């Protein structure tokens, strides 16, 4: 039957062999070859259970008199088309993200809305800040491949709970017997298992990284040949980092000089770094990503860090979205969409659950329930966004449709063939938007007339592969670009970023001292990808882990900007004072999404909101 790749928003991108029994998909067996290594997470196995879940949406649902009624696809398409036709395109927005990473599932449907000229989000919720920050210095944002991680003698997992959220990267480091350091704001599972656990104060990772850079420069432990031939602005950078001496690092970041020295020793020995997406969701997050990457510039190791390799393969995502022939009328930062929902009359959602995952996402639900917003969603199950929608359309899982799957870690491109019959009347994402386009009289628009598979083929060509080749082979190994090519104004790695200077930003990684107060932050937990698999494993409890000295009773309210959520407090000495640690982003003890109090302020480079540095009041309730 061939192979199929998991489409979750996950570093690992496991590849499976489908197991069919009695004409029905029975299991997914993880590939034994590198880098999947024959094992997967609980979510990968649960996809088969989810396929036949009682929560599956089997027919279109239309809200009538406060309740859902089942309708046919013709009526559902007509209803959505009429809502789009009667609305000012500037007051229509589409919301989607990486619930399924397939090229047809995630990217292609945006063509309808770019043809209409509606508003869009900026796709900033996860990795955008780090991508933009890295490009300021490197002209790209990709780096280390799995085989390079597997060969590392030392690895620093920085701002990523890899033992939970990057299990194959963690396994490769352990199999290599690498010395492992881990940096985070609390003793997560990864720090507890590391050889060198390093706890920093929230928002101060950039201070620690610049302190390491200073130490390496002071020792003369940098690659002079690389710096002189391939870099720009080293002298300014070297002068700048002198202020980040061990005493300053300890005062700001809480990392003592001995630990700073040990980290510098690891880097001097050639340590690689996995930079977590969570850093981009913090105050100074882009600055931290910039500074950490520049450590590898000093070491003459341009492939020494990994953030995301999605930009390494050359896939033309913009073409898939139709940006060559249509543009959004406006772009809203994802962190601010909840507050901006009153600006829109129609919202169409696919591949995401914004009510639960976006800051103040609960306001989307409130607007729909008031009748101010017509909310339509295309999804597999009746999730939290679907529960308050006006129109719910049944979607197939990745096991029920053909698609093309890439990874933002390894370089395997996979043609996913359907391995199960579609449940009920589910229809794929590209089918829905093309039917709506026909109903709107846009069937002949250049973006909608092109066959979706032809669009995928054209988007793959810059990656050096055709759709026909991929279909024939099933799996293709993609090539990464030249690591010594820097798409910066100087054509070199820029320690002093001229592109940042031109846009009025700091040409060197900057530091702003965090505000005083309790800092709510989030870490991964093993059973869920964002809000997926809540029905299979149960939603995470509304528990916040606090230092015993911060305990204020069994329950407490977290309050920000006049909004509060009620959570249960659990004492944990592994959490520093002033830090409030939560696993996942569930509903609170009274049913309100915890994201109601999350900080949606966009960071300056990619716009990622400061979710993980949310300063709140903590009071008994």
Keywords:
621 residues, alpha/beta, 26 helices, 27 strands
Describe, in plain words, how this protein is organized in 3D.
With 621 residues, the chain is α/β, with parallel strands linked by helices. Helix content is 32%, strand content 20%. The chain has 26 helices and 27 strands. The strands form six sheets. It has an eight-stranded mixed sheet, with helices on one face. It has a six-stranded mixed beta barrel with strand order 22-26-23-25-24-27. It has a five-stranded parallel sheet with strand order 10-9-8-12-13. Helix 15 (285-298) links the parallel strand 12 (272-275) and strand 13. Helix 2 crosses helix 21 (429-439) and helix 10 packs across helix 14 (257-268). The radius of gyration is 24 Å and the shape is globular. The model has no long low-confidence stretch (mean pLDDT 96).
Brief characterization of the structure:
The chain has 621 residues and is α/β, with parallel strands linked by helices.
């Amino acid at each position: 039957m061939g192979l199929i790749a998991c489409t979750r928003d996950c570093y690992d991108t496991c590849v499976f062999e489908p197991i069919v029994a009695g004409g029905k998909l029975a299991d997914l067996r993880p590939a034994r070859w590198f880098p999947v290594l024959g094992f997967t997470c609980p979510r990968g196995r649960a996809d088969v259970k989810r396929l036949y879940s009682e929560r599956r949406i089997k027919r279109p649902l239309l809200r009538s008199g406060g309740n859902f009624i089942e309708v046919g696809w013709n009526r559902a398409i007509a209803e959505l088309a009429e809502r789009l036709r009667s609305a000012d395109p500037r007051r229509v927005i589409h919301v989607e993200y990486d619930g399924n990473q397939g090229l047809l599932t995630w990217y292609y449907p945006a063509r309808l809305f770019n043809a209409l000229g509606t508003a869009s989000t900026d796709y900033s919720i996860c990795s955008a800040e780090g991508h933009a920050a890295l490009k300021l210095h490197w002209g790209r944002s990709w780096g280390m491949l799995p085989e390079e991680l597997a060969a590392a003698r030392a690895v620093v997992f920085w701002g990523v709970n890899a033992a939970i959220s990057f299990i194959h990267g963690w396994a490769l480091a352990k199999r290599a017997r690498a010395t492992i350091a881990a940096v985070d704001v609390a003793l997560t599972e990864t720090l507890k298992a590391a050889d060198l656990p390093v706890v920093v104060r929230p928002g101060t990772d950039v201070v620690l990284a610049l302190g390491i850079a200073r130490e390496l420069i002071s020792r003369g432990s940098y690659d002079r040949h690389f710096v002189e031939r391939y870099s720009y602005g080293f002298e300014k950078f070297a002068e700048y980092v002198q202020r980040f001496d061990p005493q300053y690092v300890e005062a700001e970041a809480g990392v003592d000089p001995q630990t700073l020295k040990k980290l510098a020793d690891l880097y001097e020995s050639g340590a690689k770094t996995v930079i977590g997406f969570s850093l981009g969701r913090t105050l100074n997050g882009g600055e931290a990503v910039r500074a950490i990457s520049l450590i590898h510039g000093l070491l003459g190791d341009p492939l020494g860090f990994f953030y995301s390799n999605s930009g390494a393969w050359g896939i033309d995502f913009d073409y898939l979205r139709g940006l060559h022939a249509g543009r959004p009328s406006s772009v809203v930062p994802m962190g601010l969409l909840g507050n901006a929902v009153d600006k829109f009359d129609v919202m169409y959602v696919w591949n995401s659950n914004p009510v639960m995952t976006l800051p103040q996402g609960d306001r989307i639900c409130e607007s729909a329930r008031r009748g101010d917003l017509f909310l339509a969603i295309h999804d597999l199950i009746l999730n939290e966004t679907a529960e308050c929608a006006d129109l719910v359309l049944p979607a197939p899982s990745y096991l029920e449709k053909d698609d093309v799957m890439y990874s933002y870690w390894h370089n395997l491109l996979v043609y996913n063939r359907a391995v199960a019959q579609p449940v009920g009347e589910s229809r794929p994402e590209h089918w829905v938007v093309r039917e709506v386009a026909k109903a709107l009289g846009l069937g002949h628009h250049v973006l909608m007339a092109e066959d979706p598979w032809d669009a995928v083929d054209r988007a793959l060509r810059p990656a050096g592969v055709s759709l026909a080749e991929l279909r024939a082979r099933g799996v293709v190994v993609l090539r990464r670009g030249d690591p010594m090519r820097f798409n910066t104004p100087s054509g070199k790695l820029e320690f002093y970023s001229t592109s940042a200077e031109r846009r009025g930003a700091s040409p060197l990684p900057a530091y702003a001292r965090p505000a005083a107060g309790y800092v709510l932050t989030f870490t991964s937990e093993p059973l869920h990808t964002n809000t997926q698999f809540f029905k299979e494993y149960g939603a995470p409890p509304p528990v916040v882990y606090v230092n015993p000295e911060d305990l204020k009773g069994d329950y407490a309210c977290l309050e920000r900007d006049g909004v509060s959520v009620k959570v249960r407090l659990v004492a944990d000495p592994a959490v520093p004072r002033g830090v409030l640690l939560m696993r996942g982003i569930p509903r609170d003890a009274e049913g309100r999404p915890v994201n109601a109090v999350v900080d949606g302020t966009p960071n300056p480079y990619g716009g990622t909101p400061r979710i993980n540095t949310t300063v709140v009041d903590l009071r008994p309730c």
